[in-house]
Amino acid sequence: MSALLEARGVRKTYGDHDVLKGVDLSVDTHHVVCLIGASGSGKSTLLRCLNLLEVVDDGEIWFDGAEITDPRVDVDDVRRDIGTVFQAFNLFPHMSVLDNVTLGPRKVRGARRGDAEERATALLTRFGLADQARKHPDALSGGQQQRVAIVRALAMEPKVLLLDEVTSALDPMLVGGVLEAVRELKAEGMTIVMATHEMQFAREVADEVLFLESGVVCERGTAEQVFTDPSDPRTREFLARHLA
Amino acid sequence: MSTSWEVSARQLERLAYRRRRDRRRMTIALVSTVVVLVVAWLLITSAPGWERVRETYFDWDDAKAAFPDIARAFLTNIKAFLVAEVLILALALLVAVVRVVPSAWMAPLKVVATVYTDVFRGTPTLLVVLLVGFGIPALGLQGAPTSLFWLGVIALTLSYGAYVAEVIRAGILSVHPSQWASGRSLGLSYGKTLRHVVLPQALRRVTPPLLNDFVSLQKDTALLSVIGLVEALRQAQIFSSRDFVFTPYVVAAAFFIVATIPLARFTDWLSLRAARRQSGAA
Q: GO CC terms on record (chain A) (predicted)?
């Protein structure tokens, strides 16, 4: 079976800084791929390339059997099937939680407000956010906001979910709830690519782990392989620092 | 004050101190204000020309005589203001969006919009009023407005539209790029992200400066007097040149002041409500 989402030799350059130097990535349906590596290693940039927020400078990205880096592709069509959750939540501050979640289904999928709200309420309830539906994002804790952001992405019924350091902006106390939500998504078979600094969590949920440094994938393999028997010295050094 | 605990002596002491301090502050504020007002009053009234000024500018009988006509004329100001306000918002929103949207089809419109803002922001409103007020009728175009009121409204709309467009554009550009990324990631098109995500935030953010511009617009309706529209200033002028007194001008000024106060309070209220809504519960 071919992969659902695949990057081949993806390069991205800002000025004379090469952020991604030919990255390959392959994500099968129902799999969770974790990207680990220091800040600035290119994890977030790779995710932004995958949903076309960044235009790649070379290489190809294939999604669901089509090359989405083809400039003739309608980016909006691609993105509606790729859910993205950002480090800083990026909820819409002028809308209630419910409106945040229903905006995509209503304006992109053309769902009727009633139907969209019914589905949104069900999702919010599942993630323990039923009481927050009428509030504005600023009235919520960081953990709640991030779970709303996850629900907002899920409401579009994406084929794959990109999670960009979704716990990095959170208080340590609030990280658990968000990780629990991700764990649940994996359990029901969601395909996920996540950049993360939560090593223990990556080890627990990942089907594959990629270690990036300076825009290069230094190491890839199962969580077991990468965490217990890394072959690249850079991976060993990184893990020694982060698993201590 | 009722509390669920026995308030400590230290706390009572603090409260008593704060009460004393507040009383002292209040007294100082009151006394100093009265002193300043009295001194100002004495200074002005003891000036050698005060009697003359009082007779020409602050004559109660002149004021009473001019009041009804100026009040009636001021309705024209209010009407011009209300109509122009709506037209300005529509024009400015259009111009701002055209200037922001990166679409190839928009290229010619973008040029028009940019030239428009440059020209009309650079031209004094008074000149625009004169040029439109006398220029458009002179063209003799079929269907062109000839009513002084509408010519005036068009002039104000053109002049203020350029300012307000720039305010709205600044608001759009001030919305953080992550909001665009967030909207586009959901699959919303550029236009839909602009409409549902960015513009609502931009407009909320620029409401106070916009209302400030509208306060200014309210006053600038007086400029329409130069093309002969009988509004409050023109009406005051008529009285003034007939009776050689200036009190009617003061009456007209009072109308403008009184009319801007509700708008100012409305601005405060709006900002407060927006702050409360975004941070608070439902």
A: plasma membrane
